[in-house]
Amino acid sequence: MGSALIVDDDPDFCRMMARLVAHHGFDAATAQSLGSARRQIAARPPDVVLLDLELPDGNGMSLLDDPAVRGRSEVILMTGLARLETSIQALRYGAADYLLKPVDASRLGCILARVTRPDLLQAKVAALRDQLARTGAFGALVGRSGRMQLVYELIGRVAQSSIPVLVSGESGTGKELAARTIHGLSRRQPAPFVAVSCGGIGPDALESELFGSENSRAGDAEHAGLLERARGGTLFLDEICDMSAAMQARLLHVLETGSYTPLFSATRRVVDVRLISASNRDLQQAVAAGLFRQDLFYRLNVFPLQLPPLRERMEDLPLLVTHLLREIGRAEGGFKQLAPAALQRLARCHWSGNVRELRNALHQSYVMTPGDEIKHPWLPSDARPAAAVRSHPAQPVAGRTLAQVEKEAVLATLEQHGNHKERTAAALGISIKTLYNRLKEYGAQEPGR
Ligand SMILES: Nc1ncnc2c1ncn2[C@@H]1O[C@H](COP(=O)(O)OP(=O)(O)OP(=O)(O)O)[C@@H](O)[C@H]1O
Ligand SMILES: [Mg+2]
Question: What's the distance, CA 424 to chain centroid?
């Protein structure tokens, strides 16, 4: 049986909570002051402390720093709506979750069902730190640059609480991977991680997707919304920036009340998900431009997590290449390596599509390379090897024969693709046979690969 300590200055509230907690199979004790709470914790540390922040002899926050509590007891804040903002901020300092007063019995049940000793969660983070030291990967996230180490540090900290996280970063920087890592390290890990993209979907469709519906009079079948499917787990709201104004208002209402009503239903349901949202555009700028509600932004951005673009952590490139080629090799059934000179070429690219673009480039290279060493990697479209640009200065096209322009286009593209004929033909939109014919006409040397 788990043990709980309820800390609140109101004795009637304490008694009522003790009954509720006992109903969930916990052994319940109560304290009406900070002093009494500290004495009881020292005598017998409880598994969970249900804590009101305003106590007659001080602020309950100080318990979060108490070495007797840290690591040993999970702390759940109990708060009125008026003090909700302060409590959400307090989650940053180590509380696991909060309960709105008046306390909803089913939400209390959800929280108690997840009670986990903080040191067990910390052990999971420690295991990933070990893995990082050995292999350069923190779970599925690869890289040991300073920028990524900071990301891991923040992930490890935020995973311990139920606090909403806003992950930002350019496209392909690993926002979803980071969100999954947070979920995997959290108390909610046994429950589902559910992802939904908010872009390109109207408010009604998204509402139905999120809230679900009960049988309508028109006879539509009942369907469980994503909030229901993610119950107890994590809901990942991707491309949050693209959420319509109408849906922003509905989501804000859900977050404020902690509940929602499925379509065609008369019963409100309690929300029990951890929200992680992601945006590859600057959400603060969207707020300034009047495209995103500021009040919703504050609710979602309780804990910001910024992922660095690949070009700002190029020291991670060799690790990433090895990791991605291994993954691609597993899928393709084989193993290929990148030649050192090829790695240098990759390091000079801008990678506006970040790790996803790198993965795609490596996959293309893998498939196009006959041997097991990739010498001429497929480069992203914004990568122009300096030599190719220098040797083909832009000349006005007007006034020259079509044959001349064609010849220059063919030779420049050939050089850009490191004399790789399949890629050159693909880039020019012609068949490989046509390319060979042209090269024969130009008397171009057969470039060896
Ligand atoms: N640090 C990393 N280590 C290993 N793989 C990564 C890393 N970051 C991203 N990836 C890989 O890159 C691809 C894109 O990652 P992810 O989908 O998480 O990016 P994203 O930021 O959500 O992109 P978008 O904004 O386009 O949705 C995935 O295949 C993912 O596995
Ligand atoms: Mg994504």
Answer: 37
